[in-house]
Amino acid sequence: MNNLFSDEVLDALVVEINSGRSISRPKDALSEAREFHGWTLNKLEVFDLYLKLYRIVAGNGTCIDAFAGTGRGLSTGNGETVHVDGSSLIAAKSGAFSNLHLIERDNASFQLLNIEIMSLKPSQQSKIQTYNDDCNLKIPDLLQGGKLDPSKPCFAFLDQESTQLDWATIEALAGWKTYEPPPTERGRPKACKTELWILFNTYQAITRLWPTDRQKYPEAFSPQTLDRIFGGREVWWDLWQDERSFSALVERYCDRLYEIGYQYVLPQLIRDPGTGRPQYHMIHATDHPSAISFMRWAKRSSDGYENQQLLGMETST
Ligand SMILES: C[S@@+](CC[C@H](N)C(=O)[O-])C[C@H]1O[C@@H](n2cnc3c(N)ncnc32)[C@H](O)[C@@H]1O
Would you tell me which of 53, 67, 88, 135 could form a disulfide with 294, CB atoms 3.0–4.6 Å apart? Predict the structure, then answer.
């Protein structure tokens, strides 16, 4: 990646933004495809836009889609249901990666995913490997297995449904050093670790583990789950003792990413486009300043919602 980009330069880099991702394509196998809500479509649009820039400056690396899903999903709007690409197909079609590792634990979803991959061009298919596995087990195995090129960028999309992603998996990914980017006007960025884009399910899942009324809902509190997500009781226990709101957990999660060495951590709030209600955060962790400006641009360009920063959570870019 190069140096920092102004908005004008970012806009100029994107020669053609294909916003029409929806392709109507009836197919029996897809009768089981899951519905993508507005907030999912927004997330996928950000991903699609981000990869259009990423591809230009950091292509030819590895993509790990740890919660790959079914490949495509259904979007219902204006009385019409259309099939839309999910993350793994977006990544495969983007041309941003020379190899893609797609992990999906659920058997039925895995089958659909493989059917969808067969509909890709042979040149796209040949870059893909799929695994019917738990990503928390498969990712350490992949990183140790000698299949990934450490001299190339590595991007991990961690699109969990609720709280399936273990902190140990984040640590494994962060321990994987990839390429050293070329010098920028601001000097040479450090060797980059795996770039992470993590769904932190603040409003759909985390809030349920952290009851506001502790007397009324004592059983909702799940310390074991929080330990697994955060990598230990000591990481979050003070927040519980101080009776902080569940939203403090997003901030703590970002702090943890800084602690394990990421130079830039950007949480972005994804809302329901219909109601404006917050759904979850997408947290971007990277060692390269350009990646952060690309992600900001992608979010800003996607839906008109301003990025929501948590105060004091970013280093300046
Ligand atoms: C939110 S969906 C992913 C959607 C996908 N990224 C897309 O854009 O279509 C999460 C997926 O992760 C799968 N999953 C859940 N736990 C998993 C695990 N531990 N390892 C791998 N996949 C898992 C679920 O079966 C589900 O298909």
Answer: 53
Ligand 1: which residues within 6 Å by Cβ? 44, 67-69, 73, 86-87, 103-106, 109, 134-136, 159, 161, 164
57 CA distance to ligand 1 middle (Å): 28
Q: Pick from 46, 161, 167 the residue to mutate for probing ligand 1's pocket: most ligand atoms within 8 Å of its CB.
A: 161
SS3 content of the chain, % helix, strand, coil (to 5): 40, 20, 40
Atom 3, ligand 1: residue with shortest CA distance: 69
CA 159 to ligand 1 centroid distance, Å: 7
β partners of residue 284? 197, 266
Ligand 1, atom nearest to 71 Cα: 9
Residue with tokens 């990839």: 178
Q: Is 43 helix (H, G, I), strand (E, B) or coil?
A: helix
Closest-CA residue, ligand 1 atom 4, reads 69
Measure the CA–CA gap between 303 and 274, rounded to whole angstroms.
11
Length in residues, the chain: 317
pLDDT one digit per residue (tens) for the chain, 317 residues: 444 455 555 555 544 333 334 434 444 544 567 888 889 999 999 999 999 999 988 878 999 999 999 999 998 877 788 899 999 999 999 999 999 999 999 999 999 999 999 999 999 999 999 999 999 999 999 999 988 998 899 999 999 999 999 999 999 999 987 777 776 666 656 688 999 999 999 998 998 888 877 777 777 788 999 999 999 999 999 999 999 999 899 999 999 999 999 999 999 999 888 888 999 999 999 998 889 999 999 999 986 444 444 333 333 33
**CA–centroid distance, residue 185 to ligand 1 (Å):** 39
What is the helix (H) or strand (E) element at residue 49, kind and residue range?
helix 38-58
